Amino acid sequence: MKKKIFAALICASMIGCLAATPVLADETVKADGDYKIAVITMDSVDQHWVSLKEGAEEEAKADDVTVDFMAPDVKDDAKQIECINNAVAGGYDALMVAANSEDAVSGALQEAIDAGMKLVYVDSPANVEAEATFSTDNKAAGKTAGEEMIKALEDKGVKDGSIGIVNINNSTNTAIQREAGFREAFEGTDYELLETQFCEGDAAKAQTIAENYITEGVVGIYGTNEGASTGVGNAIKASGSDEIIGVGFDKSDTLKGLIEDGYLVCTMAQNPDQMGKLGVQACIKALNGEDLGGEVTDTGVSVLTKESLAEDGAEEETEEAADADDAEEETEEAAE
Questions:
Q1: What is the pLDDT of residues 195-219, one digit of tens each?
Q2: Angle, alpha carbons 221-226-232 (nearest 5°)
Q3: Which CATH number fits domain 3-136+272-299: 3.40.50.2300, 3.40.47.10, 3.30.499.10, 3.30.200.20?
């Protein structure tokens, strides 16, 4: 399987910057037919998946194809398999899938391919070969998460202690890689990584797990997705302690708030909207007969910190002020 890095490398001198900022190809793909594409993510609730859906719908509108979002309401293998089977029965031409479990859903995906459907992975692959995959380099991002935690701990003068990990499950490919990279960052250090606990992406479960870790006296906790990270941040907030380092994964308004309020040091922000856009483009190309070669594209990740969020906010305020000035000038010109 080929691998392609679909990112422009930028200098990490700014606080909160990681190595890769993705570049989306500015292209419109002409469909040779009235294609119907089913987008099936792990669930329909997390902001990550909503952003992916919006990116896919935007691209579908530009390319004049149909995209339907058919994700289950919770992360559940059986429900995701049901969505896949419904897409096959519904006569869809292609599947864009973020696999909840790389093993559990593979049989249903193979049946879809055997029925003539094209398969493209977004975010998380299964064990069936697809036309293309668009995802984060999760192991590298997980390692960066670990490095950020070590840096934050050392800044507090904490050179050892136990670390808790709140993961989704032990079967989702992306979750496995994010934990593996995180653990790799701690190799050769004096920190002790405790046994991983699983929350199935549920923020309330994650908070309970994180609270138990805090009771055990951990110095840091890592959440591997939006729900896990939200639970970690809320647990640290509820503890009233400013000594515990929380690091998250994914991007949402809630996570941004937890960072701004100091309950999480940072989060690894993916680019799900670009996964959605590129996934639709790939589906159309495959349906048009183009051989995509099973290429894997890294859609990039960045580290969101309190400082980088403040910089983004200042930039937005500047842009809004400029837009307001432009509007005022246009009004004055019209009055003249």
A1: 999 999 999 999 999 999 999 999 9
A2: 25
A3: 3.40.50.2300
